[in-house]
Write a structure and sequence with these properties.
By secondary structure, this protein is of the alpha+beta class. It is 44% helix and 12% strand.
Length: 196
């Protein structure tokens, strides 16, 4: 898990999904007079391989092809599209669901009896360099099954769009940080109401 997922207390069971979705940074707001620069942490196969290796998702010596890189980027885009939907409405967004299902196809998982615990676990069916990406698909499945995936959301602020984990009791947070994005959005809405 990354420092960021720990800092924002994202459960370990969803940390790879959170970190992977946030490798695309679309924040473009000004904070304390400094404009945040957008960026893509994994804009090449080499950077994706480094990101995966850092998290133990890539076997030593495994090489990613351009086609593998494209499949991973499609998975990230589809996860972000799905998380952008309101949790209670996600099942109604056919476009986001179809996009996610298509992006998940290259990352099949199987069920395997665990020798480490009294139960079963999901494992990658792939045996190549992208096998580790199936961990993200397994986290999506497990989060959906236990209800924690509904706590992963995309910030409602257009100039942010960061994925965050909603720790509020009712699970109704809209912004990644109320003091930043929430305050900015509320101030903007207030100004627009005064203008009207």
């Amino acid at each position: 898990m990354s420092k960021t997922s720990r800092k924002f207390r994202v459960p370990d069971a969803l940390a790879n999904v959170y970190d992977f979705a946030n490798t695309l940074d679309l924040r473009r707001f000004v904070h304390h007079g400094v404009r945040h620069q957008t960026g893509d942490e994994i804009d090449s196969a080499e950077k994706l391989a480094a990101w995966m290796a850092q998290r133990g998702l890539l076997e030593r010596g495994a090489r990613l092809t351009p086609a593998m890189f494209d499949a991973a980027i499609r998975l990230r885009a589809s996860i972000r599209e799905y998380l952008a939907c309101q949790p209670l409405e996600r099942h109604r967004h056919r476009g986001a669901i179809d996009m996610l299902n298509k992006a998940i196809e290259p990352f099949p998982i199987t069920v395997e009896a665990s020798s480490e615990s009294d139960g079963m676990q999901l494992k990658a069916a792939r045996k190549d360099a992208l096998a580790g990406m199936s961990v993200i698909v397994a986290e999506l499945y497990n989060g959906s099954a236990n209800g924690t995936l509904s706590r992963l959301k995309i910030c409602a602020a257009d100039e942010c769009r960061r994925v965050f984990y909603d720790r509020s009791k009712p699970g109704t947070r809209r912004w990644c940080q109320a003091a930043l994005c929430g305050n900015r959005m509320k101030t903007r809405a207030y100004r627009e109401r005064r203008r009207a």
